[in-house]
User: Fold these one by one.
Assistant:
Number 1:
Amino acid sequence: MRNNRALSAREAYLRDLKRQKFLVVFTQIFLLVVLITAWEILANIGVIDSFITSKPSEIVSTFISLLSEGLFIHVGITCLETMIGFLLGTIVGTFIASLLWWSPFLSKVLSPYLVVLNSLPKVALGPIIIVWVGAGMPAIITMALAISLVVTILDMVNGFVDTDENKIKMVKSFGANKLQTFFKIVFPSNIPTLLNVLKVNIGLSMVGVITGEFLVSQNGLGYLIVYGGQVFQLDLVMTSVIILGIVATLMYHGVILFEKLISKSGKWQ
């Protein structure tokens, strides 16, 4: 009898959870439809200037025309540059953070420099990066790396340093050396920190890529936005921005999916 009640309560809880998820998704879609409809109506009746803000129908028209003009090439280039910058920033940043954990002296020496680099506007480095590595994709990837690298280092170092001291003392009491302590305790304990860094880095890397494309690229979504602004094709600008938002959302959810897969494996817990 008690088991039946517990089962019934669980089923009711699951139904309520599904209902809440449905309501959230429905409300999100409803708000989006209302916003798009209001945007179209206000533009048509002249309340807002469609030349400046464009309107949904013109954006759809521009999107269709872009499909035959190499849109997927531009999207693919932006995605490729973002993924390269994202992976490099995460891998190199985690490696440097590991070195800083390994050497507290080095960490203390470099700490103020990392703080300065983190607060420095990376756009200001754009002309320097172009001179150093040349125009084109190398400069764009370097810009993405510059934006995501320092954040990765700072977050991962803080996570490594804050690892449970009792666990570290326990493995050391069994004779573990520093390398074994890192790979058995410190790094596995900070997988959640790394996953959070991934979610931040995917956005930062895209910001770096778009900034780089503003400066030097002749391809990519950033290039389309700049070109549209230069020739006063605001429809192209708005369409590119919306596509960029969709791509960024898909990439972010890809990282979340990866996080769920890692969490389900449970190997790091």
Number 2:
Amino acid sequence: MVIIMNVRILLSIEYNIYRKSLKGMLEKYNNIYVAGEVSFLEDIEEKQQDRDYNIIVTDMHTRNVLYADAIYKSILCNKIGIIALLPSNGVNELSGIPIEQFDGIVLLSSEIDKLVRAIHIVNNNGRYVDDCFNQKKQPDNEDTTSILTNRELEILKLIAKGCFNKEIASQMGITERTVKNHVSNIFKKIDVCDRTQAAIYAIRNNIVIL
């Protein structure tokens, strides 16, 4: 049973027209108030300090690594519900953040009532995943850490600790060019685009413990 209670929302949507339209639709519901609107990294960091809301609703459209990292920090805090609005092929829109880490997944093609239901479920400490998304969900993949060699795992750990290629080469007694080749192979195997995403991946998969 979902208990209907007042919810304060932070809309983290890149495009102004889309964000304003969504705000207007949500505020037609008496128990939902849009407490803030953001589109860029510096804005969401400022709002995180305010904490004047219960749930972040985000489209994750920017694909900006730092933006994704700010969202990820909110997830780790485990104090704010995060609902992702995704297209039907939404797996590709999460900037490396595992689906399971979001409190709610709603497809952009859904009716507004479905998003409102997700908001109230998440606000009651539940989790909501769009039925259509479940139907499209891909089969579980092989643990990608198993396809990394021991040397690649060692390099990934150093990347996660903030080491650059030159430092890694020095510590491992190999050339910087060899490190560069290993880093490229690691990125391909774990499907990330840069060192920040690789570090997040290493932390999420307990390859490094902070």
Number 3:
Amino acid sequence: MNNRILIKHLLCAEAPASRVIAAGWVRTRRDSKNFSFLELNDGSCLASLQVIADAGIPGYEEISLFNTGASVLVQGDLVESPGGRQKWELRASSIQLLGGADHSYPLQKKGHSPEFLRSIAHLRVRTNLFGAVFRTRSRLAAAIHRFFLDREFAWVHTPLITASDCEGAGEMFRVTTLDPLSRGNKSFDDDFFGRAAYLTVSGQLEGETYACALGNIYTFGPTFRAENSNTTRHAAEFWMVEPEAAFCDLEGDMELAEAFVKHLVGAMLADSSGDFDFFCKWVDKGLRERLECVSRRPFVRCSYTGAIDILTKSGRRFDYPVRWGIDLQSEHERFLTEEHFGGPVTIYDYPKEIKPFYMRLNDDGKTVAAMDVLVPGIGEIVGGSQREERLDVLESNIRRMGMSEDSYRWYADLRRYGSVPHAGFGAGFERVLMFLTGVRNIRDVIPYPRTPGHCEY
């Protein structure tokens, strides 16, 4: 079995080969009087390998057990396929059943709904759609690392358990060893960490400490948000990409974010595995055209005030009324990208009241040096800012928002000891995947989705 060859390599072979070993799961089996056809897939690519097993070869006596979902090992010769569907097929000299699958296997037929497949998340990756999604997720994670490593960013592993609320919104999961059902006046002193602790909503604050020592860093890992939202764009557990660059302002931050998005779009357009073609054919027929548009066009930059003016004068009746000072909603973002600008747009200089405490206050006293990258089909895909490097302004922001100065003293120390202009952004990996694959629901681009009321595994 150690000598097995991945099916994706067999299908791309340059010449016939003898004594080939392949293994995988049976997609279909068709029997004739003296032989059987097997469609075998090992997860390495979208396509399956056709196997011809003649009656009488070793293992054929168990062919009736080679049902859809069963795992098998095949040895044989790779020969040209006369059928024309694919270049090669495997003529078996022996077959072996590794793990059977009875008729209760839930993927007996095609066309299952995404809702049904979410109920069997441990098996859905065996379907064409989810195999393509999660191979793509792996490739794009590697592309993210290449992007930052090529630009001399150091990868920092920030903590998943934290005492700080980065966003100041309070939508955090509590981490405790105390029994929530027990009675008594137990305090944080009795808890594991001796204080309140939470699952992180962002690695940004800790990332800033490393940027102010190493220069350019990025984090890439899971984050958590206790937001009771059941939209197609929200999940309680998701992955974030968060670069932080010292000696960088808002302009540099916007340039980095645009380069980041275009790099991932380019990686997707260059995919030759067949997965991208599958998305374009079966998931979103406009996907290729949309990504090519993003790839070749510079991102428009528009101030928040300018965006509000565009929305106000559009004549469109939005579900969420437009006025200066609101947080832009998905319908506003999609109007700007899909109808007004016809492509990606970076919105900058947002009102300070709707942004977190750490964003740099602009000279007008009303806005902060924040930016969001909006793309067609999704809306916001990247959000970032120049960070407030002035100690007095940062402390004023903390007080204005009613936050504990003691809890953020360590963060303020970065401004006491060698403060520098610095900036960064966050990109939700799952939203990036939705944009690049055309998949419409965040639950379908993460292996085991965590949403309100759902945590089966």
Number 4:
Amino acid sequence: MYFWLWMAVFIISLVIELATVNLVSIWFTVGSLFALMANQLKLDIAYQIVIFIILSIICILLIRPLAANYLRGNIVKTNADRAIGEHVTLLKPISENAWGEVKVNGVLWHARSYDNKPIEQGARVEVLAIEGAKLVVKRI
């Protein structure tokens, strides 16, 4: 009788996982598979439910962080993020009360120094971060 219950949970959670591919219900698929095996071993329904709950929780707590890191993959820098780490020449000087200017990958940016110290025009700088519409730079 409970065979069909666990089979339904297995199929429904598997279909949901295949439809979303976001590690949403795979844990319940694993739990229901083991509960289904417990059913075939003629264990009481209480044991089947405990097996389902415990294995689902174990999968969520132990495997999800590993799988999430693996599935995240390499993060490719796009658009503005590509400017970080670039070495460029300062086109306009940075002073205490004025932003400088740099050109990174063909795009003109306002720039400020990371330590708020002046940097003269023509100096080579490294882009450390992006703050709003400005780049934070340091002298190389």
